[in-house]
Amino acid sequence: xxxxxxxxxxxxxxxxxxxxxxxxxxxxxxxxxxxxxxxxxxxxxxxxxxxxxxxxxxxxxxxxxxxxxxxxxxxxxxxxxxxxxxxxxxxxxxxxxxxxxxxxxxxxxxxxxxxxxxxxxxxxxxxxxxxxxxxxxxxxxx
Length: 142
Fold this sequence. Notes:
Layout: E1 4-10, H1 14-22, H2 24-27, E2 37-42, E3 49-56, E4 62-73, E5 77-84, E6 95-104, E7 107-115, H3 120-141
Antiparallel strand pairs: 1-7, 2-3, 3-4, 4-5, 5-6, 6-7
């Protein structure tokens, strides 16, 4: 199984960064790779329970992902399961994501861990997607 870890630092307080990775209205501003928008969702990582999002690219192709928020520990971490849906809306293999927020001398650090991704090709695809999302988050928080 491939695992992915991405680390980014932001010039904001840990509480502010945690809000950006847990509050649905804020998540929508950076959720999904560049060039995607989210026309349908139940994004709320402030409480345990189900979540989903449908991302759409410029050509109108849609990509649905869903899971369960497994833990919320403000302002330190939030964890959730993750599985893509196929064209028949059937969930695929489940993986696990954790956002961890740490204080730094200049603000806060986000550690994004995505575990149990299957093979290296799937891991690389998720690395590209999350890196793109994090560029959007960096643009909002700079």
